[in-house]
Amino acid sequence: MPRRTARAGTWAAGLLAIAVLPVAASTPATHGAARIALRMASAANSIPRKAAPAPPVRAAGQPFDGTPAVGALFSTTRSGGLGTHFCTASVVHSPHHNVLITAAHCVARHSGRIDFVPGYSAGRAPYGIWTITRVVADHAWLTSASQDDDVAFAVVSQPRTGLRIEDITGAEQLRIGALGRLPVQVIGYPDGAGQPITCQGRTSVPMSRQLEFDCRKYTGGTSGGPFLTNVDPATGDGLVIGVIGGYEQGGDLPMISYAAAFGANIAALYQTAIRQS
Question: Residue 48: pLDDT band by 50, 70, 90 thresholds?
Answer without folding.
Answer: low
